[in-house]
Design brief:
Structural class: alpha/beta
CATH superfamily of the largest domain: Response regulator
Number of domains: 3
Largest sheet: 8 strands, mixed
Shape: globular
CATH class of the largest domain: Alpha Beta
Helix content: 40-55%
């Protein structure tokens, strides 16, 4: 009886509202997703549906209210749809009805650009469906895909698109090609997220995109592997677009590059960095007889005459500059038209169509780490960061990505180097509070009272933001402040915490630490072992940062023939020594790194994703 009264009261409110006021003007409208079948079946207006609901029994009235909400979505009346869904949710306890209403709520909030609230609503719908074994609707997955796309989570969006495709009876070749384009935009570590989620058809898609990533710049090999893929997955939907992929790939023409000008600091304070990059380039060049390298010292360069030099030397391509201030000076010369691969990035100048840049920002590592680790069911991560400007930026990048993925904000504690480090670690783990409690108990009990300090139990993962030297001090402090009767807390870090030079001495102190790293600095299948051995023989005392720059120079030589192809075909990756490189929409090459772990007396590459 109470529910019936509530429905009647709601209907009276709706009808009065509709007759007395104009509908609120919705915020900027977005493209409408495919309506659910129930909306397509009914052509009645919302007002008609509401009148029908008023004249019928309670159960049928709620069904008509839900249909009215879905019709509001179809008519792009998102504020009205949201209000109706909210009110109807309050008067029904039926699981299927609650599921449908939460989908309507999520659709409305998405179109009103309230993406975080929309995600909460669609997750509520998902939880209801999974708990009560309700088959999820097409509009559910489409809405989730739209929300995650708007939030910048491409892999999560694609996972939802694959679920939607699997239940869409009207899917066609265009839909298949749209999935291919979505896969083409993924980085290597984003593909790992798809593999972990295992949405429909993902195994075949991941095999196809792997062939494209590795061999897309070589048409003969690419076509051969496409044929191999068709034999492996004869019933996969992507078979419908193989001919289309081949046709579009025929537009990829390898550029003719014979003269390459390289801009590096070969004297001055940054000479060591410039020489490391030069040596990496020469190692890749390996006495190439078809191309010429011309090195220019940026410390002696007359920038005003650079274009004249490039013209007179018939330069087809420029590699560099390396230093950020020189990159900005180069980009300020707006008349330069020679295709260029910059070895650093600028926040001040956008890149033109013929300009490309490699990003080696440590913040990118933190984003990859947060994205990957948030998929591993950690609920309460904590960040321990050095208290300096760079570490703070890295920590903030990790926090932002984690929050985007999970909706939760990790705790962060800034650790000061020196004598205060141990106290800071104890404070972050609440060990200091435990010791204070023990001290108070001892003052009240017998002198022979024994107790051991406990660390807090609500942390299930720690991400360390620190350089290698300080990490080696910090990690043992963490270990000794974890109670022997507590669960082991996994500890992760970036490549800044790993040093090739300190591996032997650091094994015991860093045991168990997992870190992201460049392939060049970690023995693995991705490492060019002969290059790494040669480098170690020639420069055994070279710092980790200079080794990274050497790898950067090595990769840059192979990229000059590839970047223009990557621009036309985003699915092409470069498996380099600085990481797996992918060109994004801003012409910046971003890296996917590999993972390593300190184990007993060795460092070992691991598959974390």
């Amino acid at each position: 009886m109470k529910t019936s009264f509530s429905v009647t009261l709601l209907l009276i409110s709706i009808l009065l509202l509709g007759s007395c006021a104009k509908s609120p003007k919705p915020i900027k409208k977005q493209p409408v997703s495919t309506p659910s079948t129930s909306v397509i079946e009914y052509k009645q207006s919302v007002q008609y549906l509401l009148q029908q609901a008023k004249a019928t029994q309670t159960e049928k009235a709620i069904a008509l209210l839900i249909l009215a909400g879905e019709t509001y979505i179809q008519e792009q009346q998102y504020v009205e749809a949201l209000w109706l869904a909210q009110q109807t949710l309050a008067i029904t306890s039926n699981n299927t009805e609650q599921y449908r209403l939460n989908v309507i709520k999520a659709q409305s909030l998405y179109h009103l650009q309230q993406y975080e609230l929309a995600l909460e609503a669609i997750n509520a719908a998902k939880d209801i469906a999974e708990h009560h074994h309700i088959t999820r609707y097409l509009s559910d997955y489409q809405t989730l895909a739209n929300i995650q796309t708007a939030r910048g989570l491409q892999a999560d969006a694609l996972t939802a698109k694959l679920h939607a495709f699997a239940i869409n009876q009207q899917a066609n070749t265009d839909d298949v090609f749209a999935l291919w384009q979505s896969f083409s935009q993924l980085t290597a570590w984003q593909q790992s997220k798809i593999k972990l989620a295992q949405p429909p058809y993902s195994k075949g898609w991941l095999a196809l995109i792997a062939y494209a990533n590795h061999y897309g710049d070589n048409l003969e090999r690419f076509y051969r592997y496409l044929t191999t893929w068709q034999r492996q997955y004869p019933n996969h939907p992507a078979n419908a677009i193989i001919a289309q992929i081949k046709q579009s790939s025929q537009q990829l023409i390898m550029p003719s590059i014979t003269t390459i000008t390289v801009l590096l600091p070969l004297t001055g304070k940054q000479q060591a960095a410039g020489l490391a990059a030069q040596q990496g380039l020469l190692a890749a060049y390996a006495n190439n007889t078809t191309q010429v390298l011309n090195f220019i010292d940026t410390n002696t360069l007359d920038w005003t005459n650079l274009q004249e030099y490039l013209d007179s030397s018939n330069s087809d391509f420029v590699i560099g500059p390396l230093l950020k201030q020189n990159v900005e000076q180069y980009l300020a010369l707006e008349t330069l038209t020679t295709p260029t691969l910059l070895l650093n990035i600028s926040e001040k100048y956008p890149l033109k169509a013929h300009q490309f840049a490699i990003s080696m920002r440590p913040e990118d590592e933190a984003i990859q780490a947060a994205d990957v680790l948030s998929q591993k069911s950690y609920q309460h991560p904590m960040i321990l960061s050095n208290n300096d400007a760079l570490s703070r930026r890295i920590a903030q990048s990790f926090i932002q990505q984690w929050q985007k993925n999970t909706g939760e904000q990790p705790e962060v504690y800034f650790i000061n180097a020196g004598k205060k480090m141990q106290k800071d670690v104890q404070a972050s783990l609440d060990v200091d509070l435990s010791k204070a409690r023990i001290k108070r108990l001892k003052s009240r009990l017998k002198p022979n009272f024994k107790a051991e300090a406990r660390n807090r139990r609500d942390i299930d993962m720690i991400y360390v933001v620190s350089n290698a030297k300080l990490t080696r001090l910090l990690k043992p402090y963490i270990d000794v402040n974890i109670s022997p009767f507590a669960d082991l807390v996994p500890i992760y870090a970036s490549s800044r915490s790993h040093s090739v030079r300190a591996e032997k001495q650091a094994m015991r102190d860093l045991s168990g630490l997992t870190f992201s790293e460049l392939p060049f600095l970690l023995t693995s299948q991705a490492q060019n072992k002969s290059l790494a051995q040669l480098h170690k023989k020639l420069w055994p005392q070279r710092s980790d940062s200079l080794q990274s720059i050497f790898a950067l120079g090595f990769d840059s030589f192979f990229l000059i023939n590839k970047v223009s192809l990557m621009q036309k075909a985003p699915y092409i990756h470069h498996l380099g020594q600085t990481g797996t490189l992918k060109l994004n929409a801003n012409n910046i090459l971003t890296r996917s790194l590999i993972w390593g772990q300190y184990r007993a007396n060795r460092v070992q590459a691991i598959a974390l994703e």
